[in-house]
Amino acid sequence: MKIAMIGATGKVGQVVAAELLRRGHQVTAISRGNHTIDGVETRISDINTDPDLAAKLGGHDVVISSVRFVEFDQDRLIDTVAKSGVDRYVVVGGAGSLTHPEGGLIWSNPKFPEAARENSRMGAVYLDKLQDSALNWTFLSPAMLFFDGPATGNFRLGRDDALVGPDGKSSVSYGDFAVALVDELEKPQHERQRFTVGY
Fold first, then answer.
1. 93: which of 1, 65, 71, 105 lies 20 to 30 Å off by Cα?
2. Contact assessment for residue 113 and residue 168, using Cβ atoms and an 8 Å cutoff
3. Exposed, middle or buried: residue 52 (CB in 10 Å: 0-12, 13-18, 19+)?
4. Would you write out the chain's pLDDT as a tens digit for each of its 199 residues?
């Protein structure tokens, strides 16, 4: 597949891009800066201001966005993806919109780190907007502890509740998240749905 990836040079984006390349997919990075990833074409674009973004996304099979939710105009991006004519939109989501094991959404839990609360809340807002859109979207939320680690292949999938492992922790590595995301691209199971991955 031909994949346009917004945020391919970020921490998670680089791991997802590497997994896509490993499986033989073609990746185009949509980036504000002139960053390069081996094997990836880069198209310079500020997604908040670029009037040609829809054209840059056009011609791909899938658009993936891996961008902090407080850093972009949500309505504008949804509208731009729709105008691009790309068949599928996949979002690297956050854990904040999942249901916490103690009840309520994770972002609203009193124990949630204050510094990350607004971005997580905006992730929940974006999920609501996607549900109201006409896009063929998928929103993949990681577990609560999302860490830089390799793929093990030993993970579980869920829907709206944070997954908690036998050790009592809700966690997943970037590597396993990337595997779950690319699995979904290759064999869609969650079109117009949010799902989650964790141990």
1. 1
2. no
3. exposed
4. 999 999 999 999 999 999 999 999 999 999 988 777 888 999 999 999 999 999 999 999 999 999 999 999 999 999 999 999 999 999 999 999 999 999 999 999 999 999 999 999 999 999 999 999 999 999 999 999 999 999 999 999 999 999 999 999 999 999 999 999 999 999 999 999 999 999 9
Token pair of 97, please?
């919109």
Q: How far apart are CA 82 and CA 179, in angstroms?
A: 26
What six digits make up the tokens of 195?
Answer: 């799902």
User: What are the helix (H) ranges across 23-92?
Assistant: 53-57, 74-84
- Residue 172 β-bridge partners: 146
- DSSP class of residue 100 equals P
Q: What are phi and psi of 76, to 5 degrees?
A: -65, -40
Token pair belonging to 137: 């979207």
